[in-house]
Design goal:
With 296 residues, this protein is α+β, with helices and mostly antiparallel strands. Helices cover 24% and strands 24% of the residues. A hairpin with a 3-residue loop joins strand 10 and strand 11.
Amino acid sequence: MHYFPHIISDDEPCWHEFSYRADSKELIIKIHKSFSSQDGEALQTPYFLKQYRENYSITDCFRLGQGDFFGFNGCLKQFQENDFNCLAFVFPTVATNEFSACRSCQGSGKNTRYSKEDKDCRPCHGTGKKMVENWQHVDDITDSLFIIAHYLLPSIEIKSSSSQNQLFTLDFNRESKSVNEGAIKVTISQAFAWWWAKNKNLNRQELSERLRDLWVYLHGRLPSENDERFEVEYLNQGYFAIKYPGDRAGLCANNNSGEVTGGYDIYCKNISPKHDLLPILGIMAVVHDLARAERI
């Protein structure tokens, strides 16, 4: 489903954007104030909240521009910056170390069990300690982002006084029963599509390494050696795509042949909206910053 406005074929003023601050590992969603004034109270209604979490607290805040925190358990910091209401979170990690030794390396921190090479043990990330995962904080963030995404993709006319173009939007099908059902969709605007297609010499290797770093930080471990699929790609004549760990996982356009003539949708394959959203959103924010730096 395409929402209004149709950024694939039209230049539309920005009503929200994304940014990533590498020094503080902070990801920021910026919502233009001229848009934030449109039906922002709807975010607080039970109709919205119960779609994403049946049991929520009355202290959970979903009022844009009001208070210091937003979302389930106050997981997003809320502040104002120039013409934007901003929601931010420090990139989380789900892994913590226990006192017991890692079973894979017997506490050495090295991958000496299966290889003679002096490499860090992947299950414990070289710590030698057993890793335990806790996804609650990530769940709070992703559930809150799902609600924000719903709000940012309205089916009504958007009024924004921004002088910059909207570069892309994100949509999440949280009810998807399978990771193959398009749980994450990114709509690339024509402004972004043309900029990406013309930047063939952009350092995509650095972007791919940044994507990998975000994945490793979130999971607190290294990916398996046969699953090192982290690529931000320039497909064919300039289509944007992402390769991701998993069985042919990633995001790409269904039709990525021929010349780039405007915007397009990129869909996920074998991507979990719960566990894979944040690294993908992080790298999209990094790319968004690069485009804005060139006044796109």
